[in-house]
Amino acid sequence: MLNIRSYNLGPLQTNAYLLTGADPAKGVIIDPGANPAALLRAAEGMEIEAILLTHAHFDHIAGLDEVRKAKKCPVYIHALESEWLGSPKLNGSLMWPESSPPVSTDPAEYDLAEGQILKLLGLTFRVLHTPGHSPGSVSFLCGNDLFSGDVLFKMGVGRTDLPGGRERDLFDSIRGKLYRLDEEVKVYPGHGPRTSIGFEKLHNPYVPM
């Protein structure tokens, strides 16, 4: 059983997730955005097994250094965006100086790839490579819970006009991978409210079935 807590971090209200399993003293963090104080308070006294990154845009990694130093845990990101962590140009933080100072972090400890299985919290997380919003975007599936980053939102999709974005890839990722999951799968996006695969297949105006 996966327990999920969500925190809206930074000026872009990025969803960071704190996950726990059967042992409440162990956790996993997904996408630590800017000003992660609330997230760190919730994780106080907890062993964080990993920080999982859906992609490396600045609003999803701005709190990474602070969280990583506090919890001394490894970071996972898709290999196509491993260099983005250390490059304010690639991670977009130079494009919005009003929203963020330049963001540069140390490299991740581990690369992610399509189909990879991660054993965390006594549970299984499957990595789906879902490019389109960015070339290294991934989604994490644990049971019936999907963490989609900025690929699929409630009645929306991620923008594709940033460097490395491609509309055709985004639609292929959604139709070819996410929409093939069970309709009961709950979707926890990088911004905005939770949704489900079944709801999006019926109601998403950008990617209708």
Automatic annotation (TrEMBL):
Q: Cite the PANTHER family for this sequence.
A: HYDROXYACYLGLUTATHIONE HYDROLASE GLOC
Protein name (database record): Metal-binding protein
- State the reactions this protein catalyses: 3',5'-cyclic CMP + H2O = CMP + H(+); 3',5'-cyclic UMP + H2O = UMP + H(+)
Q: Does the keyword Cell cycle apply?
A: no
Residue ranges occupied by any Metallo-beta-lactamase domain in the UniProt entry: 13-191
Does the keyword section mention Membrane? Answer: no
> Which cofactors must be present for this protein to function?
Zn(2+)
Q: Which Pfam families match?
A: Lactamase_B
Residue ranges crossing the lipid bilayer per the database entry: none
GO molecular function list: hydrolase activity; metal ion binding
